[in-house]
Amino acid sequence: MKTESTFQQVRKIKPTRFSVSGLLPFKDGVSIPYESTLERDLLLYFTYMPVVEEIVSQPTRILFVKNGMTYPYTPDFFIRFNDGRPSLLIEVKPKSKWQEHWRDWKEKWKAAMAFCKKNECIFHIYDEDKIRHLALFNINAVQRYKRLQCDPEDIEAVLTQVKLHGNTTIDFLLSRLFTGSFYRTKGLQIIYHLLATKQLTCNWFEPLSEFTEVWGYSND
Predict the structure, then answer these.
(1) What is the mean pLDDT of residues 115-130?
(2) What gap in Å lies between CA 82 and CA 201, rounded to an integer?
(3) How much is the pTM?
(4) Burial profile 159-196: b = 16 or more Cβ within 10 angstroms, e = fewer
């Protein structure tokens, strides 16, 4: 049985003229490679989830049999969580492609499901319907504030209030620390910066507003 700690990248992703490839920062100096915009969007969502402990691209090679011949199959990502939920082995495919070719690919996907059963994880196919949701929209919305130059004292003030009160609304922070319309707008930008830089987090699946509850990313 393959243990979770033994998953590692088995195929290197190289730049290509025909799709978008790159690296997405995760944590501890680790960046995750991707080779399509759909993979990039999936990674962007999962890298903002505090419960995600590990992400491995091209994590294992699975053998499957089709028409009497044996072939290798490499899923796109392995994702391990820190809250007790089962790990995921993920194939990323546009909906139109897997719907068109599922009969051709069913043997390798059955092999992936059997592999996951032995290794205590779950195999999922992620298409745009499962990836491009409200949470991704919200995460993308705060990206423009990621490189915002903020006064360290303002950042410290916000983080101190969050640590004191735990889950608290954006409106509470603005009312406590940034009075006046100009300073309120500035304060909102600082809070979005803290969300974008993973110093704060929230329920990304709810619309972002001044009533959004935020809390420390690491839950310390």
Answers:
(1) 96
(2) 16
(3) 0.87
(4) eeebeeeeebbbebbbeebbeeeeebebbbbbbbbbbb
